[in-house]
């Protein structure tokens, strides 16, 4: 359980998504894209246009198995944080962390570390001892936050997948 910053103490359960979370995951996804449009691989308009059935199918798929998983911070009511993990065929011992997000009012209260730890525990349970993530070059706040969680800049730079003018850097740490 984590206490959020601010005057009202709140707690959030960190857990893997469940099929019943589909509507709340859709709401969180739209918030993520509105708040940080360059950090994710689709536009707010595209996500908003996607039918609920697609969200439901994605959540059901990531709620089980060892290929991909999504973890959420759930205080009851709307979800306030997310981190996903997925395999990469080229490195069987690696889990790539994706779509990390904390609702602004909940930032700075430890949820980021708890979400990454949940992905790490799942990764280890699946036999993958290493984590990797990509951060947009210049996103210093995220870069510093991931450094505090033990991620190290590998020196690898890759083009941003949807915005050609941007570059991402790769960070790794043990799971």
Automatic annotation (TrEMBL):
| Family matches, as InterPro entries | Acyl_CoA_acyltransferase, Bact_Acetyltransf, GNAT_dom
Matching SUPFAM superfamilies:
Acyl-CoA N-acyltransferases (Nat)
Task: Tell me the keywords, alphabetical order.
Answer: Acyltransferase, Ribonucleoprotein, Ribosomal protein, Transferase
CDD domains to which the protein is assigned, alphabetical: NAT_SF
Q: Name one GO cellular component term.
A: ribosome
Q: Which domain of life is it from?
A: Bacteria
Q: Which GO terms describe its molecular function?
A: acyltransferase activity, transferring groups other than amino-acyl groups
Q: Which residues form the N-acetyltransferase domain?
A: 12-175
Q: Cross-referenced Pfam families, in alphabetical order?
A: Acetyltransf_1 (PF00583)
Name of the protein described by the UniProt record: Ribosomal protein S18 acetylase RimI
**Source species:** Micromonospora krabiensis
User: Where is the organism placed in the taxonomic lineage, from the top?
Assistant: Bacteria, Bacillati, Actinomycetota, Actinomycetes, Micromonosporales
